[in-house]
Structures are given as C-alpha cells and as structure tokens.
Design brief:
This protein is an alpha+beta fold and 333 residues long. Strands 1, 2, 3, 4, 5, 6, 7 and 8 form an 8-stranded mixed sheet that branches. The chain has 3 domains: 84 residues, Orthogonal Bundle (Rna Polymerase Sigma Factor, Chain: A), CATH 1.10.1740.10; 47 residues, Arc Repressor Mutant, subunit A (Orthogonal Bundle), CATH 1.10.10.10; 122 residues, Nuclear Transport Factor 2, Chain: A (Roll). Strand 4 and strand 5 form a beta hairpin. It is built from 12 helices and 8 strands. The N and C termini lie far apart (50 Å).
C-alpha cells in the first residue's frame, strides 16, 4: 500500500484514489452480491461504497489494511441496504396460455440473480487461512440462496469469517462488536446452513470442460433443439429441482420435471437453441426459441444448471433481464 498514493488521495487526488481502490473493486462487488443475492443490487451498493470511501479517505489512519477498511465500508453499507431495502415482491406466473402446475413447494428466496463467471476471472485476493469454503462453493447458487435466509448480522459474520477468512478479531473490528459476539453469531449461522443443506448424497459435479461435462452440454443442447422431453429427463437426478426466480414455484422430482417441460417449455412443439455460458461457477445457457419458418430467435431466459456427477440435479431459470450482464442479446438472427 503506497503511503504516497494514500496521501495524494487524502489531498483530493481522484486518480490516486482510483489507483488504490480499483484492484479491490471486483472482489467487493462479489462481497455485495453474496450479501444481497442480486447483481443489480450489488452494483447499486458499489456506487454507494465507492462514494463513502472517497468521502472518508481523509480519515483513513492505516491502523488496518486498505482492503480491510474497504470491507468495513462495504459490509456496513450492505447491512444498511438490508435494513432499509424495499423487499422485492415475488413475480406472478407469466405464461398466459398455460395454467401453472401444482408446485411441490414455494421458494423462500425469490429475489435472486446469477453472477457471470467472466466477472470472476479478474484477480482476486486469496481468502485468509481461516476460510472454510472453496471459491467455487462460495459463489454457487445454492450457497448464495442459503445465505439469504440468514439474519443480516449472521450473514455478515459467516461471509467475513468462513468465506473471506478474516479472523474473529478482524471481523469484530469490521462490525464494531466483540470477538465473543462474532463467535456466537458464527456458530448460529453455521448451524442454520447445516440444517438447510440438501447436499447430502450428491456427487461432486463433473469438472469444468471435462469430457463428462462436454458430453452433457452436447446432449442437453440436442434435447432442447429437438424438444425431446424423454432425452432431457434421462439426464436428471431423481430429486431434481426446477425453479424460476422471482416466480416462487418449485418443482421437485423427475415426474414433475417431465410434466413441466411437456406443458410449459416444449408446449406446442417449441424447440430452442442454447448458447453456452457460465454463471456462479456452473453451466448456464441462454435459451432462444426457434422459429419454424427460420426467422429471428427470441430469448426465453437463462438456465443455470447444477450438476451431481454428470447428471442435472437443479435447473434455475432466470428471465431475460439478466442477459446483458452475460453479453448476450435478446434476439438472434
């Protein structure tokens, strides 16, 4: 950390401030995303955080690292956002020509957005030695969803301690509390996540770009291009889950998954082209409805796929609003 740069920033040099903070921007955005579950909300929070850091740089005394100081600002801004947030209402079923199937359950967390893997490739700080989660697990949709059920303070402690690897003392300083309070909150947060975990019995996913994953991509693409429900269902685990935030409906099991795709996805002979991307460390596909007459193909959302071994255990569909973040168009020629 350059003392000269800090002194320049404190004297009002915006270029020096940018040089100091830019290397931390992406990891702070991911931090906000874990808190808020929404890429849009995370981007909004980052604007507030950078403004607060610029206004407060004059008071930075160097007692902690600049990174820790930025995380303190970011964490407290996220906590404020959670306290004052307009709660995003669940969406209603939008397929006017089809009545929804009776769901097997209603999702607790409906305000959720995917995070592009391309944005995770920027250099990031290595988590501290006390981190308990691998980087891929700590950005997965399942983990992000689980975080959203935690009370804000527990969420903050678990992210700081188990994801970023800050010590109890550092976490207490960031949250302006005691190490004992941090330890207590962390214990409760871990217990909640453990009780809610449905990972038991799941195999590790096929490795990215492995032959098994490439084969799955080929078969899934072919199933959507052919509108072949049986081919798709053959790729699913018995306990597969279909969800579509912000619509709260969830469908579990292969039978319901088959009915859902017959009546909704592939209704009236619909077929799709899939464009491969990645989100939250997972396979993702933009689905484009094919025109039998050969006309333009219109996007029908982004599918994020969770794997157990070489089979699909979860399909999460997001609407077209998330596509620009992945550099994907709403219409293909």
């Amino acid at each position: 950390m350059s003392t000269e740069l800090i002194e320049k920033a404190q004297a009002g040099d915006s270029d020096a401030f940018r040089t100091l903070t830019e290397p931390h921007w992406r990891e702070l955005q991911v931090h906000c995303y874990r808190f808020l579950g929404s890429l849009q909300d995370a981007e909004d929070a980052m604007q507030d955080i950078m403004l607060a850091a610029w206004q407060g740089i004059g008071g930075f005394e160097g007692r902690s690292s600049l990174r820790t100081w930025l995380y303190q600002i970011a964490t407290n801004r996220c906590l404020n956002a959670l306290r004052s947030a307009r709660r995003h209402a669940p969406a209603t079923w939008s397929v006017s020509s089809v009545d929804p199937l009776e769901p097997s359950g209603l999702g607790e967390i409906t305000w959720l957005e995917p995070y592009p893997d391309a944005w995770l490739e920027a250099p990031a700080m290595t988590p501290g030695p006390e981190a308990r989660y691998e980087a891929s697990e700590a950005i997965s949709l399942a983990f992000i969803t689980a975080l959203q059920v935690l009370p804000p303070r527990q969420r903050a402690v678990l992210i700081l301690r188990d994801v970023l690897g800050f010590t109890a003392a550092e976490t207490a300083e960031i949250l302006d509390t005691t190490a004992d309070s941090v330890t207590s909150a962390l214990k409760r947060a871990r217990a909640t996540l453990h009780d809610r975990s449905d990972q038991a019995g799941r195999e590790p996913p096929a490795a990215p770009n492995s032959p098994a994953e490439r084969d799955l991509v080929t078969r899934l693409t072919a199933a959507y291009q052919a509108g072949d429900v049986s081919q798709l269902v053959a790729m699913l685990t018995d306990d597969v889950r279909i969800s579509m935030p912000p619509v709260p409906l969830e469908y579990r099991g292969r039978d319901l998954a088959a009915r859902f795709h017959e009546l909704v996805t592939f209704r009236q002979g619909r077929t799709y082209d899939l464009i491969l991307t990645r989100a939250n460390g997972q396979l993702a596909f933009a689905a484009y409805l094919r025109d039998p007459a050969g006309g333009a193909r219109h996007a029908m959302g982004l599918l994020v796929v969770t794997l157990s071994g070489d089979r699909i255990c979860e399909i999460t569909r997001f609407d077209n609003t998330v596509l620009p973040s992945f550099g994907l168009p709403r219409v293909l020629p």
